[in-house]
């Protein structure tokens, strides 16, 4: 499988910043040929930093095409004629104006799969839809953070990344179907979908999400962060066997069932907090993991990267995190992100 499971699949990307480029990079890592179409001057994320661009665009080709010109649209049509899919993340009006929909491109290739990534859907309007805005609009920010504090946003672009993965799935599903057509993926829909059990609890049982201290889970107790003698510990007790093992090690009696622990949340958390304060987070991790209990000391990102060197690769001059998809018999090459217009002279036919 030296060419990768997606060898022979050609994808055109008209992507900006994060969501679109991340989607196609996942495909490129699996062997797809990804041609990144950039405007004159380059895609805007090149202006953020070299490492930012490298983290989202390895294993791709770069062509500068002015899609606003007749010549550029003709060049795009030539590429579409021999490609499996086109993925774009822009405002709906720009996608339509530049002719990046299936209705506009099927004249070149009826089998082309066109994936549009937008904030609210192709017919949802042009309101700005950056990651943090979507987290605020879908309830994610409101249910995150300390209950006595303000709403909180995660420390990374969860909406953009999640939408990128979802779009890649939709693109592949449509290719597998063997028919061309339009795929419509929005950040809003993806984030609401990922609130699955939270949304279901409200829609069916009238239970509105509540914030708990230390990010505590709504159903499971104890399942949250705890302060220790040194550092914080994530402990996630989801069933009674985990509790029995933990309680024995921590010297806690009672509360044998999940229902009892949930009903007496405050009592349980007080006992667990007192017990965990007696040792460090690292030591608790070393004590509890051999018992099969889900637990981890809270690490910084540098600490996590240092502890997990097997997840790191080199692409050109940059060290990056590898693809999360590991397939037996295949290892991505991890080529450097392309220079602007590096592949301008590449033939229109697929390699």
Low-confidence regions: none
DSSP, total strands: 11
CATH class of the largest domain: Alpha Beta
| Corresponding CATH architecture of the largest domain | 3-Layer(aba) Sandwich
Strand order of the largest sheet: 3-2-1-4-5-6
Class by SSE composition: alpha/beta
Order of helices and strands: EHEHEHEHHEHHEHHEEHHHHEHEE
Report the helical percentage.
Answer: 25-40%
Main beta-sheet strand count, sense and barrel state: 6 strands, parallel
Q: What number is the mean pLDDT? A: 96
For the record, the count of structural domains works out to 2
Could you say what the CATH topology of the largest domain is called? Rossmann fold
Query: Count of DSSP helices?
Result: 14
Notable traits:
about 350 residues; alpha/beta; Rossmann fold; 2 domains; 6-stranded parallel β-sheet; 3-stranded antiparallel β-sheet; about 35% helix; transferase; CoA-transferase_III
Textual characterization of the structure:
This protein has 351 residues and is an alpha/beta fold. It has two domains: 198 residues, Rossmann fold (3-Layer(aba) Sandwich), CATH 3.40.50.10540; 66 residues, no CATH class. The strands form three sheets. It has a six-stranded parallel sheet with strand order 3-2-1-4-5-6. Strands 7-8-9 form a three-stranded antiparallel sheet, covered by helices on one side. Helix 1 links the parallel strand 1 and strand 2. Helix 1 packs across helix 7 and helix 7 crosses helix 8. The radius of gyration is 24 Å and the shape is elongated. It starts with 9 loop residues before the first strand and ends in a 30-residue tail after the last strand. Keywords: Transferase. One of its GO terms (molecular function) is formyl-CoA transferase activity. InterPro entries: CoA-transferase_III (IPR050509), CoA-Trfase_fam_III (IPR003673), CoA-Trfase_III_dom3_sf (IPR044855), CoA-Trfase_III_dom_1_sf (IPR023606).
């Amino acid at each position: 499988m030296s060419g990768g499971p997606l060898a022979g699949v050609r994808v055109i990307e008209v992507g900006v910043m994060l969501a679109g480029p991340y989607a196609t990079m996942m495909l490129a890592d699996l062997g797809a040929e990804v041609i990144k179409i950039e405007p004159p001057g380059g895609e805007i994320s090149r202006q953020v930093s070299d490492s930012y661009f490298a983290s989202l665009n390895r294993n791709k080709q770069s062509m500068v095409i002015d899609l606003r010109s007749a010549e550029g649209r003709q060049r795009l049509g030539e590429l579409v004629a021999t490609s499996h899919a086109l993925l774009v993340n822009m405002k709906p009006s720009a996608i339509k104006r530049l002719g990046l929909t299936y209705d506009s491109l099927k004249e070149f290739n009826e089998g082309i799969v066109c994936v549009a990534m937008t904030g609210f859907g192709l017919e949802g309007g042009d309101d700005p839809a950056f990651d943090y805005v979507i987290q605020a609009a879908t309830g994610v920010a409101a249910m995150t953070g300390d209950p006595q504090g303000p709403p909180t946003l995660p420390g990374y672009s969860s909406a953009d990344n999640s939408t990128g993965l979802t779009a890649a799935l939709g693109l592949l599903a449509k290719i597998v179907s063997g028919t061309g057509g339009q795929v419509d993926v929005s950040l809003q829909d993806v984030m609401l979908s990922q609130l699955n059990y939270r949304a279901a609890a409200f829609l069916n049982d009238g239970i509105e999400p509540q914030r708990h201290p230390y990010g505590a889970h709504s159903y499971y107790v104890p399942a949250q962060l705890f302060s220790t003698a040194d550092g914080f510990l994530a402990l996630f007790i989801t069933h009674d066997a985990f509790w029995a093992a933990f309680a024995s090690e921590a010297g806690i009696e009672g509360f044998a069932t999940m229902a009892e622990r949930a009903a007496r949340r405050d009592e349980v958390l007080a006992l667990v907090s007192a017990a965990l304060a007696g040792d460090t987070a690292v030591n608790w991790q070393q004590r509890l993991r051999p018992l099969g209990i889900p637990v981890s000391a809270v690490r910084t990102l540098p600490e996590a990267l240092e502890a997990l060197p097997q997840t790191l690769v080199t692409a050109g001059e940059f060290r990056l995190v590898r693809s999360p998809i590991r397939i037996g018999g295949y290892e991505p090459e991890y080529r450097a992100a392309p220079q602007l217009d590096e592949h301008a002279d590449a033939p229109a036919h697929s390699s």
